[in-house]
């Protein structure tokens, strides 16, 4: 249970505590200096402390924390990639994200739901099928579906043929 979130939910006063710390004065030296406070830099700092006991770490960020690609991406945490190596690697990442709010006692707004990657060409359909088979083989729930099934899951999509690139299927 993330206690920080529970406290925030029960509190009458807003806003809640500031979660981004004010930049500290730099020390003359560190055991490790990481350039860039994006997802990779922050994860490296976190795991250095957690797994290796190295906490004397500086993360130098020229903008604001995680304000690069990490803040601007689509933020889809998924493991339905194409190669077995990619699937295994990202599946482990999904596993880590599942418990991250608890681990950090901070709500990272992670929630699980379905995802459609639309296919508009024969080539995209073929790749979707390929991905689905690799995924299933490695235990990742993923399948190729066609317009009638897409319409059921996501009725907002325009599935007519009368568009420039009709939707032929989806992963
Ligand atoms: C549009 C878009 C959508 C994406 N969607 C997804 C998605 O859905 N799922 C997914 O898993 N991935 C997605 N990605 C990829 C993912 O966002 C990146 O792989 C990931 O964020 C890279 O993290 P990073 O820490 O390496 O880089 P960044 O998050 O870019 O961090 C680099 C940081 O370094 C700082 N920096 C750079 N130079 C210096 C310097 N000289 N001194 C100090 N600081 C410096 C920058 O300011 C920045 O904050 C997407 C990417 C984009 C662009």
Would you report the number of β strands? 4
Binned strand content = 5-15%
Q: Which sheet architecture does the biggest sheet show?
A: 2 strands, parallel
Ligand inventory reads: flavin-adenine dinucleotide
What do these coordinates show?
- The protein has 171 residues and is mainly alpha-helical.
- The chain has two domains: 1-73, no CATH class; 74-171, no CATH class.
- The protein is built from seven helices and four strands.
- It has helices at 3-10, 39-52, 69-72, 84-98, 100-104, 122-137, 147-153, and strands spanning 32-35, 57-60, 118-119, 169-170.
- The strands form two sheets. A two-stranded parallel ribbon has the order 1-2. It has a two-stranded antiparallel sheet with strand order 3-4.
- Strand 1, helix 2 (39-52) and strand 2 (57-60) form a beta-alpha-beta unit.
- It starts with a helix and ends with a strand.
- The model has no long low-confidence stretch (mean pLDDT 91).
- The chain binds flavin-adenine dinucleotide (FAD).
- Flavin-adenine dinucleotide binds at residues 35-41, 60-63, 67-70, 73-76.
- Residues 35-41, 60-63, 67-70, 73-76 line the site of flavin-adenine dinucleotide.
């Amino acid at each position: 249970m993330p206690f920080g979130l529970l406290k925030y939910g029960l509190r009458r006063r807003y806003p809640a505590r500031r979660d981004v710390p004010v930049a500290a004065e730099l020390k003359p030296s560190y055991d490790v200096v990481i350039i860039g406070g994006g997802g990779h830099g922050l994860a490296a700092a976190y795991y250095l402390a957690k797994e290796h006991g190295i906490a004397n770490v500086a993360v130098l960020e020229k903008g604001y924390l995680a304000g690069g690609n990490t803040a601007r991406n689509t933020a889809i945490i998924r493991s339905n990639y194409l190669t077995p190596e990619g699937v295994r690697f990202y599946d482990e990442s999904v596993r880590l994200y599942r418990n991250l709010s608890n681990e950090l006692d901070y709500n990272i707004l992670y929630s699980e739901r379905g995802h459609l990657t639309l296919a508009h060409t024969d080539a995209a359909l073929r790749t979707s099928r390929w991905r689905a088979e690799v995924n299933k083989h490695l235990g990742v729930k993923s399948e190729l579906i066609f317009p009638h099934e897409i319409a059921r899951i996501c009725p907002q999509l325009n599935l007519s043929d009368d568009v420039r690139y009709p939707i032929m299927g989806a992963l």
